Structure formats: structure tokens, C-alpha cells
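Example 3.2
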Amino acid sequence: MRVTVDPVRCEGHGICCLFFGERIDLDDWGYAAVDPAPFDDIRLARKARRAVAACPEGALAIEITAASAAPRRH
């Protein structure tokens, strides 16, 4: 999975960075700058969902990547 940001909807509140600072930083103008690298860590996934839910503009989304959708072998 990965987090994406709609730069048109982002108003620069910065709440996402507070919830998911591991993958979201703020640019020079205070808008979300998201690390586009996919991840499958459950702890990061929880934080990502919280950040997406907390965005007052609905500018963040979670995208399921092919790697995270594939079944895991144990």
C-alpha cells in the first residue's frame, strides 16, 4: 500500500504529518509531501489510515499496490 495526496485538495493543515510523520513531510509552503514508496508494515498501515481519516480536506488516500495485494506465504 501507499499513501497519495491530491495537491489540489490539500490546504496545508499539516495534520497528516502529525499522524504519519514517517511517510509525510511538509514542503516549504506547508503542504503535504508524501513518500511514494509502498509499504506493508501493519504499524505504518494503521498510522496511514489515521492520517487519511484526519485530513479535513479529504486530500489523502490509500492506494493498494500489487505487492500488498498479493497473498503472503508463511
